[in-house]
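[agent] plan:
  1. take the single chain provided in the ticket
  2. run structure prediction with default settings
  3. attach structure tokens to the ticket
  4. add a short note for the reviewer (M.T.)
[agent] executing step 1
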Amino acid sequence: MTKFSDRDRALRSKLRVEQASLVKKLKELQSPNSGEKVSKPDIDACKGEIEVIRKELQSIEDGGHTVFMKAKKMLKPKTELSQKEKKINWKKKHIDVRMKSIKRDLNAESISPEERIQKESELEKFENEKSELDLELDAVNDYNHTRFVVAHGEHGEGDEQSKQLMDVNEKMEKVQKQIVEAKEKNNSELINELNDQFHFLELEKESIENFSHDEFLKNLEMMKARRKSQLG
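[agent] step 2 finished; step 3 output follows
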């Protein structure tokens, strides 16, 4: 049975509270009776946060929390997308109010030719700003699709990503079988070594899915060295 330090026990407790809170939040977001419009980025961000906490808890169980924290930036969900969408919608709403006011002024019988020119210029400016915001909002909503398109570009990056995922999945399956065999032989040293391998493979798979595999590989040896020094 894994022995945890006081610090790890406190951290596990804190993370589980956060996890429970996020699970509750996710259920509320997915509930048809939530009473408010919920965007997909909000739900995806919440799911992503839950997954990161799950992985962090697992890293504590495996004794590799310091290593996990080194790689956490690659696993962190894009929660800023949800906030970005809200900010854009707020700007659009503000522009709509201004445009409505300008149109009302343009319909006034008392408006002078000079004022009309000025108001029409302002209206055109706001219409252009709103069009830009619409494009930005589409980009936020299509975030995952955009990443997919980039990954499946003219140079076959998508095929390369599929190969990388297939390779890492095969390695994970192989290590899982080795862990089972090591447990049957009660070889604790080998079990720990294989758990480390599996943990790094999980991180590698996540980095491939998040299109940050190069960054992962660049930091891999450093993370392994840090992990080795912890165990040493």
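[agent] step 4 note for reviewer: Residues 1-78 form one domain.
[agent] ticket updated
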